[in-house]
């Protein structure tokens, strides 16, 4: 064979069958030669990770070097594993660049943000028709999703319980600008085909929304009975004990991936300032016309936002929600600042030398 006809792509490239894998990951991985294989994290335990590799799921720990960087693999991460066949062991040695990153803000202790999941393309914000429908909560969810880099889709579930789903959709659209809003019934599967474009081969979705809106029912509908969602896997850990793990990443029959993780379900509002500006882009746009540059849109004269509310262009509740979220963000970042100061103090303390240490130091010289 003439060498010109050799394929340009490395030999492993066509063997990689990890859902969500793409060319970019391929080129990031191409620097690894030898006993390294790629994988995708299914779920994380304290010091062990379940990882999907070409055609099965394995358990892996992480290397000391990766551990020292402080970068912990999370569900959805694409990782590089060192495979030691003779020891029957896999070790995660690196996390490949994340496309999107869903994290809990730096709430409380001022420590760095906590990443919950990575590489989610689309997040279904699930709400249900009827009394769960809460526009203010939807705005919070939108804020979180925008900050992660994923694309939001609002799913109005239990459409079978309302006579007027179109009305509910209109209400949601009033705050959602160009975010798709889809009415479905997870129970009867009515309308779920409208969600199919987001769960096609290679795409990764996650679901967010309060308890009882029907997230599990929806996932089961996508899975089409191929996996039992609540199925827990009983296996022996490295010490021979039985452990029970719950899968958090599912491959759909059509090739898409669904991530279902308690941290995403129960997401709290943290430092999501970027997403905040996107969510309230209408208010921020109007605010350019406020008389004062630092207008807080509370009661200042010449406030264009208050004027827009009075004239009915912006809903009063929406401005209230803006103020409430703004206050919360300010509070969170203040808390983070306080935490930082505490840390700085601590660091300083560590550098202080006690009189005894100083004496010993001088004596050694
Ligand atoms: N009528 C109707 N009921 C639904 C629909 N989808 C889900 N339900 C019901 O709503 C209840 C809650 O559904 P789940 O799927 O457990 O809700 P969830 O969002 O996963 O709840 P958590 O696990 O607490 O987060 C169940 O009794 C479902 O049968 C729907 O489209 N229509
Ligand atoms: Zn103003």
Automatic annotation (TrEMBL):
Ranges of residues in domain CP-type G: 112-267
Residue numbers binding Zn(2+): 290, 295, 297, 303
One GO MF term: rRNA binding
Reported cofactor(s): Zn(2+)
Keywords: Cytoplasm, GTP-binding, Hydrolase, Metal-binding, Nucleotide-binding, Ribosome biogenesis, RNA-binding, rRNA-binding, Zinc
GO CC term (a single one): cytoplasm
Residues reported to bind GTP: 157-160, 209-217
Role noted for this protein: One of several proteins that assist in the late maturation steps of the functional core of the 30S ribosomal subunit. Helps release RbfA from mature subunits. May play a role in the assembly of ribosomal proteins into the subunit. Circularly permuted GTPase that catalyzes slow GTP hydrolysis, GTPase activity is stimulated by the 30S ribosomal subunit.
Family recorded in the similarity comment: Belongs to the TRAFAC class YlqF/YawG GTPase family. RsgA subfamily.
NCBIfam families listed in its UniProt record: ribosome small subunit-dependent GTPase A
Protein name according to UniProt: Small ribosomal subunit biogenesis GTPase RsgA
Organism of derivation: Methanolobus chelungpuianus
Record lineage: Archaea, Methanobacteriati, Methanobacteriota, Stenosarchaea group, Methanomicrobia
Encoding gene, per UniProt annotation: rsgA
């Amino acid at each position: 064979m003439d060498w010109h006809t050799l394929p340009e792509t490395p030999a492993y490239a066509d063997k990689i069958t990890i859902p969500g894998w793409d060319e970019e990951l391929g080129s990031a991985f191409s620097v690894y030669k030898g006993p390294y294989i790629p994988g995708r994290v299914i779920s994380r335990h304290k010091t062990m990770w379940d990882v999907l590799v070409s055609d099965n799921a394995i358990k892996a720990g992480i290397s000391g070097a990766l551990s020292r960087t402080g970068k912990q693999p999370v569900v959805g991460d694409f990782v590089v594993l060192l495979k030691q066949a003779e020891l029957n062991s896999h070790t995660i040695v690196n996390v490949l660049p994340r496309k999107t990153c869903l994290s809990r803000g730096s709430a409380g202790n001022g420590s760095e943000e906590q990443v919950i999941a990575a590489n989610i393309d689309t997040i279904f914000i699930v709400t249900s028709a009827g009394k769960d429908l809460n526009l203010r909560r939807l705005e919070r969810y939108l804020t979180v999703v925008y900050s992660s880099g994923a694309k939001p889709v609002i799913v109005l579930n239990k459409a079978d319980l309302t006579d007027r789903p179109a009305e509910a959709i209109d209400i949601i659209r009033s705050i959602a600008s160009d975010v798709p809003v889809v009415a479905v019934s997870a129970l009867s599967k009515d309308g779920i085909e409208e969600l199919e474009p987001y769960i096609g081969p290679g795409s990764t979705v996650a679901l967010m929304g309060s308890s009882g809106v029907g997230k599990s029912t929806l996932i089961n509908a996508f899975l089409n009975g191929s996996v039992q969602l609540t199925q827990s896997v009983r296996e022996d850990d490295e010490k021979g004990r039985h452990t029970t793990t719950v899968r958090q990443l599912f491959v759909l029959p059509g090739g898409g991936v669904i991530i279902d993780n308690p941290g995403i379900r129960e997401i709290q509002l943290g430092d999501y300032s970027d997403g905040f500006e996107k969510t309230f882009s209408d208010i921020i746009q109007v605010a350019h016309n406020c008389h004062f540059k630092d207008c807080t849109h509370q009661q200042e004269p010449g406030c264009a936002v208050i004027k827009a509310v009075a004239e009915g262009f912006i809903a009063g509740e929406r401005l209230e929600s803006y103020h409430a979220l703004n206050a919360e963000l300010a509070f969170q970042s203040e808390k983070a600042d306080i935490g930082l100061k505490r840390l700085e103090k601590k660091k300083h303390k560590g550098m202080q030398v006690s009189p005894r240490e100083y004496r010993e130091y001088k004596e050694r010289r």
